[in-house]
């Protein structure tokens, strides 16, 4: 069965099932969403207007048995950055869509009636538009429950909460994971785009699916084995991440002086111990949670976890370093349990836990919150935000807009998106990624922390300028390609250090589709994706002045290394020389 | 006495008096502020950070006896548009600064101590930095009173209210006018820049000033006579404006189908009669106000007025069409007295009456206010806004940010600045000015309404595309030059129709400085100014995608003419071919 394009028009509630155009055949995930957005969306359109499109595309290897291949990409013009956005997610949607033969789901238009929300129900060669007044105003877990009650079988669920209905920049599209918890198409306000199209949730029925077709099953199996071994033998993906999750990074970044603290006023925090991965793992063990847990079927890294409170009650899962950092060091909460409770709340609300938490950090400068006042912050998030009070709307607009509203100068954003977890002044390669990424400040788009701090793929001194632009460029190119395979970004660690890993990945793609790609082809794919995205952004109104870190990082000295951001504009712009 | 540059550094509270560099000698007003900002301000700097500069420069003819020459320019990087800004104002500051020999006042840096506000007191070769805790939290008229009590003589006063102290985008810099009322450096949030530099007010002591030097007094007198006559004999500047103020335009635009109504949903309003210039003039006559009143010494047009309530108590002055339109047709208030009361309040608060009122129009779409609910809007402006409540901050951020916060699509802004009073779909030449102006949507930067609607300088059909780009270009070039002379923009009407007007203006400049400029030189000055500003904007991060009207105007048909905005990007970009 050939894959097909499912195209939905929300203006007249119609759909078409289309053959995949030849030029899209070899694309998946980010390569496909970014290509479709670039080809079909007017870069000058309003991101929340009828001419934006929301595109979902599973990765090339999604739906297969390849380890860690269960990522689904979502793309659109972002209301947060004003540029192109791709956000990929674990959960069950990539696998189910792939097995149903959905190469991409393209959602266009906007209903004339603003008062109705729909569930899109996707089945074989069909999309139903179901009015769901009973789901309006519900948060994510309630939607999952309602859908579970409605279908007596396994369906993929992508949903938005109230914040998405209200089209706020913080809104994610949340996806049901294999454990019945939530994963997020985070960053960039894709949930607001879904809300603007009056879609409360999308369900994909898995009943009649088949396994995806593998052109050369033997070759696939062999390559898959090599690839899995590489993942398991790498010290980061095979040991560090399973043991402590991504939160292994708190102590590492703190020691490196790259843990942004008090809204990016220092690079280390005296209370790091309270919130670090080691503390988290101890709590989980003592309280009967799970230290390892996969965000999608086939994950062999299992960096997720289930974190319970002292009484053994569920607080959150997918408890990531970046969220813990933002609520901890940057906003000042010293109590990991409260951070977990807020993380769980953000899952349920369907808001980006990085953007939300970085916004809280800035809200301290605005005088809205006291540093570390987690109780008041919890109230803001649980009451004001989902009810859309004036203050809820302010927080819901994200860091950049909060800075505008309060006339603040120390606003940690690039292209309007909050800077995550790694101080660019002290981890300069990451700073180059933040400045140049087509996605706005996005750690996942070129994780130079790997080579600056973790010595993965060699070492480039994080405090020096030398080599950072090349490092960030190479990583962003590779990441764009990996984001197209359906692979989790953490395959980068073995890919950087184990010479067998990347060839095995390419072999799996070739075996799946019966093609003969080389590693160079994959690198070129990454380059093409970045250029496509960059060109879209320029047409959308961004230019090189947007490839910059916040100005205050140029003149404000960051302890403990007492460094500033010292790249010239010209040096940064050299990123695009490829 | 040669003119001098007064340069103030707020970081260390110091000042320097400098010779005027040769390249600035022939510049004044907008030409000078934009040149200084372009030369000295990093386009990538944060507008509210220490590297922005606030520049005041009187026009070339300010301080002379030339009619209508009393305009003062203020320039900076704008926190509202992110680009360069020049805003000129009547009042007493241009004359007093000129007579004191201040070619430009350049304010740099930012105090380390955020808790202190200063009065800058400018006298001959001296600037004093006076801590003014007693003025903090006061609105404009209270500041004027305090300054009047402090100095037993006439001083120029430029001040900000609470909204400026809080660095909101709506904040003006307000200037005392000859009648003791206020004129505004409006649009673009220059009051926020002044607030960011912790300057509550600037006073210029006029005690020891001399008349400005005129190189050839006889020639000046003669040219001045011709110029004044041209102003007085033009039907618009000599009759329409003195009789009804700028508010003569309500009926004219309503009949032309170009009066934006209900947040730009139609081009005419059934209640135009309630708020039109004729109604206003009747009220003024019946209540003992003033139909004519000059915003600065030497004005022969006298388009300002004093508008009283039914009991003869002062409500407002400088009661402009754009404000009346925005609160009337666009937001829905049918009671001209309430509009006047709100206009007076906005003067006192020091907020831009166009941006504020266009924001209220959008607030209806956001569900914050009901259409036409002036009482609630008054409460918002009088209580929430100056007290900086969450809702006050939202309104105080202006139209563009309000649209972001509420996820709205029908947001009438260009480059983040609210579109004034003339429907671009029905007055297409004005639409081209809005799209291309370096200032964001700004009617004064190239008033194509003149030729589209008022048949001044010929006629170009407002509903057709033909000729609009050339019209807007010529007007913007001429306006940039006029904004440099210190002349009020309304000299454009005789300049467009009376062949003696423009030569007389150039003769006055030549007589003042003993130079030999031609009309071509003046046109070239206008071109240079626009190019300087455009280049700054590009370096600041704007590009041709920012030279666009809001997308909804492309697909939403505007009654009564049932027109859309139908210019392609390419057609608009041809504006810059000069």
From TrEMBL, chains A, B:
SUPFAM superfamilies documented for this protein: Aldehyde ferredoxin oxidoreductase, C-terminal domains, Aldehyde ferredoxin oxidoreductase, N-terminal domain
Listed PANTHER family: ALDEHYDE FERREDOXIN OXIDOREDUCTASE, TUNGSTEN-CONTAINING ALDEHYDE FERREDOXIN OXIDOREDUCTASE
InterPro entries in the cross-refs: Ald_Fedxn_OxRdtase_dom2 (IPR013984), Ald_Fedxn_OxRdtase_dom3 (IPR013985), Ald_Fedxn_OxRdtase_N (IPR013983), Ald_Fedxn_OxRdtase_N_sf (IPR036503), OxRdtase_Ald_Fedxn_C (IPR001203), Tungsten_al_ferr_oxy-like_C (IPR036021), W-dependent_AOR (IPR051919)
One MF term in the entry's GO annotations: oxidoreductase activity, acting on the aldehyde or oxo group of donors, iron-sulfur protein as acceptor
Name under which the protein is recorded: Aldehyde:ferredoxin oxidoreductase
Signal peptide: none
Aldehyde ferredoxin oxidoreductase N-terminal domain ranges (all copies): 1-208
Pfam families, A to Z: AFOR_C (PF01314), AFOR_N (PF02730)
Superkingdom: Bacteria
Keyword terms of this UniProt record: 4Fe-4S, Iron, Iron-sulfur, Metal-binding, Oxidoreductase
Family: Belongs to the AOR/FOR family.
Known cofactor(s): [4Fe-4S] cluster; tungstopterin
């Amino acid at each position: 069965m050939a894959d097909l394009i499912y195209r939905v028009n929300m203006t007249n509630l119609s759909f078409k099932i289309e053959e995949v155009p030849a030029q899209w055949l070899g694309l998946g995930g980010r390569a496909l969403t970014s290509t479709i957005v670039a080809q079909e969306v007017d870069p000058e359109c309003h991101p929340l207007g009828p001419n934006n499109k929301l595109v979902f595309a599973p990765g090339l290897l999604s739906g297969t048995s390849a380890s860690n291949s269960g990522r689904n990409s979502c793309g659109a013009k972002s209301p947060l950055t004003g540029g192109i956005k791709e956000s990929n997610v674990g959960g069950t949607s990539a696998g189910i869509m792939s097995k149903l033969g959905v190469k991409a789901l393209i959602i266009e238009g906007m209903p004339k009636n603003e008062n109705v929300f729909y569930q899109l129900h996707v089945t074989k060669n069909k999309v139903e538009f179901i009015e769901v007044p009973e789901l309006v105003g519900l948060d994510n877990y309630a939607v999952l429950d309602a859908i579970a009650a409605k279908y007596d079988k396994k369906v993929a669920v992508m949903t938005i909460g109230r914040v998405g209905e209200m089209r706020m920049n913080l809104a994610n599209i949340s996806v049901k994971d294999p454990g019945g918890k939530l994963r997020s198409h985070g960053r960039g306000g894709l949930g607001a785009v879904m809300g603007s199209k009056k879609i409360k949730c999308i369900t994909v029925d898995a009943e009649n699916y088949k396994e995806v077709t593998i052109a050369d099953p033997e070759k696939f199996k062999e390559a898959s084995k090599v690839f899995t071994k590489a993942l398991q033998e790498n010290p980061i993906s095979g040991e560090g991440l399973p043991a402590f999750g991504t939160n292994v990074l708190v102590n590492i970044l703190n020691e490196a002086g790259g843990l942004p603290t008090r809204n990016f006023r220092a690079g280390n925090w005296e209370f790091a111990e309270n919130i670090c991965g080691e503390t988290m793992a101890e709590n989980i063990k003592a309280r009967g949670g799970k230290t390892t847990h996969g965000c999608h079927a086939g994950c062999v890294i299992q960096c997720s976890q289930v974190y319970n409170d002292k009484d053994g009650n569920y607080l959150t899962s997918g408890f990531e370093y970046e969220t813990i950092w933002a609520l901890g060091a940057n906003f000042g909460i010293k109590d990991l349990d409260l951070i977990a409770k807020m993380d769980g709340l953000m899952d349920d609300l369907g808001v980006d836990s990085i953007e939300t938490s970085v916004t809280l950090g800035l809200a301290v400068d605005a005088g809205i919150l006291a540093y570390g006042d987690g109780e008041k912050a919890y109230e803001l998030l649980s009451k004001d935000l989902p009810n859309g009070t004036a203050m809820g709307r302010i927080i819901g607009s994200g860091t950049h807009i909060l800075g505008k509203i309060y006339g603040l100068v120390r606003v940690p954003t690039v292209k309007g998106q909050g800077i995550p977890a790694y101080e660019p002044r002290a981890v300069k390669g990451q700073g180059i990624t933040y400045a140049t990424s087509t996605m706005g400040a996005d750690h996942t788009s070129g994780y130079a922390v790997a080579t600056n701090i973790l010595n993965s793929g060699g070492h480039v001194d994080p405090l020096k300028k030398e080599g950072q632009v090349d490092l960030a460029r190479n990583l962003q190119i590779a990441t764009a390609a990996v984001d197209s395979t359906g692979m989790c970004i953490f395959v980068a660690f073995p890919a950087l250090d184990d010479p067998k890993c990347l060839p095995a990945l390419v072999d799996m793609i070739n075996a799946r589709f019966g093609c003969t790609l080389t590693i160079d082809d994959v690198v070129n794919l990454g380059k093409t994706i970045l250029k496509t995205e960059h060109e879209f952004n320029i047409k959308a109104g961004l230019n090189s002045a947007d490839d910059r870190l916040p100005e205050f990082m140029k003149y404000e000295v960051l302890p403990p290394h007492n460094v500033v951001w010292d790249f010239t504009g010209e040096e940064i712009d050299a990123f695009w020389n490829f």
